[in-house]
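PROTEIN DESIGN WORKSHEET
SECTION A - STRUCTURE
LENGTH: 459
TOKENS:
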């Protein structure tokens, strides 16, 4: 009996054959559209230097906390997966050995989007049509490694092959954006734009906050030690990002809190923030005020504001102390929006010249808080299913929870939010398949122009 291919052409489509037909025909219209990637974490150096990735482990495993957290949760030491330690102590350096360890635990990814992304890359890009196992680990490793060194696997070649129209990186205001400048000066047709992520200079709890603020002043030729000078420095830095193509800012706050405080209060908070003596409540006030300031600035420079709240970062202190940031120990918290956003919305909620895109890691807020908010305030839009919910079920839940209140036009398109460059098309493809599956189900269930729809897909 012939073996089933690794990827079924109808994957993620509805089980009902009639509905599946409609999903398929809708998908035909969107599957080859260019990829627009407005939020993500790829490294601008890759595009500037047109690098080739080195080996399968460094590509798929070591930088991907989705992958190694799963193995860690089942008792595999991060050292054995080659994750570097902050104290420089030895970790596994043989990428082949790391790959074998991964292959031996591959069953753990059953039912997860990580497996769909990975298998989409293996089959779609490397032509590998076998599931990873201990038996074929070396063979698959070799096949990927040989391909990776070829010119057609350089980042710019893949950018073209993937039909990417534009991709945004995520950058600190203290970054000189040298790689972005190099990309712009190059005669390459790809479009890679920076995104202004000011957490290091607007979150008083961020490591080195006061030094970061002073550095911001140096970079902009401004006295950033006063409240007004600090705001001016931020506005100037945003402008610099705009000159290199930025279209958005991004904010990773612990909550969605916003504030609209008087200037004297802001000055006092800012002075205390620089001295590092804010209470936890005052730090929250400061971050909340800075969100409102960022939206105010967006009226001048046109940058869209993205808010990604509600992640308890570095929840596992042991892992954080040993391996540092972004090691899969970020856990979602319950997040409240209605009260939290009110100060911002009182001031700017009715603005039609600015946009704030809200994200959530708390699915319970989708129907109750976020859809009604974005379905009312002109300032607001709702971002796609994010992080732990960037998955088939997460995306379906999202559409079900918000569409009847927010409609489609108060949500924004998909973003991949990834640093795993090779998986970008697989992620967009998943979102397109889920959306194409949602439409017919939803329209048929409301019986809306049922006949027309059933016939339309045949045209
Ligand atoms: Zn992100």
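SECTION B - SEQUENCE
RESIDUE ASSIGNMENT:
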């Amino acid at each position: 009996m012939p073996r089933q291919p690794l990827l079924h052409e109808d994957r993620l489509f509805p089980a009902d054959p009639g509905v599946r037909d409609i999903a398929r025909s809708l998908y035909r219209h969107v599957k080859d559209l260019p990829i627009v990637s407005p939020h993500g974490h790829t490294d601008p150096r890759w595009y500037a230097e047109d690098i080739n990735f080195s080996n399968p482990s460094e590509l798929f495993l070591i930088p991907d906390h989705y992958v190694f957290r799963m193995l860690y949760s089942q008792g595999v030491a991060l050292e054995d997966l080659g994750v570097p330690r902050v104290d420089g102590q030895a970790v596994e350096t043989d990428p082949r050995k790391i790959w074998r360890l991964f292959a031996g635990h591959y069953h753990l990814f059953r039912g997860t989007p990580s497996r769909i992304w990975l298998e989409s890359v293996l089959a779609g890009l490397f032509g590998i049509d076998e599931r990873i196992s201990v038996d074929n680990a070396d063979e698959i490793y070799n096949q990927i490694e040989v391909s990776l060194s070829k010119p057609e696997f350089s980042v710019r070649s893949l950018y073209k092959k993937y039909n990417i129209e534009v991709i945004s990186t995520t950058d600190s205001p203290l970054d000189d954006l040298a790689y972005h400048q190099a990309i712009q000066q190059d005669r390459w047709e790809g479009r890679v734009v920076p995104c202004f992520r000011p957490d290091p200079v607007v979150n008083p709890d961020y490591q080195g906050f006061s030094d970061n603020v002073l550095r911001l002043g140096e970079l902009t030729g401004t006295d950033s030690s006063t409240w007004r000078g600090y705001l001016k420095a931020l506005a100037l830095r945003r402008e610099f990002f705009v000159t290199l193509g930025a279209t958005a800012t991004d904010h990773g706050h612990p909550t969605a809190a916003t504030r609209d405080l008087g200037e004297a209060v802001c000055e006092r908070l800012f002075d205390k923030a620089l001295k590092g003596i804010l209470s936890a409540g005052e730090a929250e006030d400061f971050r909340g005020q800075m969100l409102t300031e960022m939206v105010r600035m967006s009226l001048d420079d046109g940058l869209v504001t993205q808010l990604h709240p509600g992640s308890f970062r570095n929840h596992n202190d042991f892992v954080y102390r040993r391996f540092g940031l972004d090691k899969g120990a970020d856990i979602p918290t319950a997040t409240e929006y209605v009260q939290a956003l009110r100060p911002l919305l009182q001031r700017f909620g009715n603005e039609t010249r600015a946009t704030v895109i809200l994200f959530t890691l708390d699915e319970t807020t989708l129907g109750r808080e976020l859809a009604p908010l974005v379905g009312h305030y002109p300032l607001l839009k709702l971002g796609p299913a994010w992080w732990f919910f960037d998955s088939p079920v997460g995306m379906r839940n999202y559409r079900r929870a918000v569409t009847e209140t927010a409609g489609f036009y108060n949500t924004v398109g998909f973003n991949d939010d990834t640093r795993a460059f090779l998986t970008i098309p697989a992620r967009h493809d998943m979102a397109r398949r889920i959306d194409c599956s949602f439409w017919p189900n939803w329209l048929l269930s409301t019986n809306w122009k049922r006949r027309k729809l059933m016939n339309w897909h045949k045209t």
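SECTION C - NOTES
The chain has a mean pLDDT of 93.
Strands lie at 35-37, 164-168, 192-193, 248-251, 304-307, 311-312, 331-332, 356-358, 380-382.
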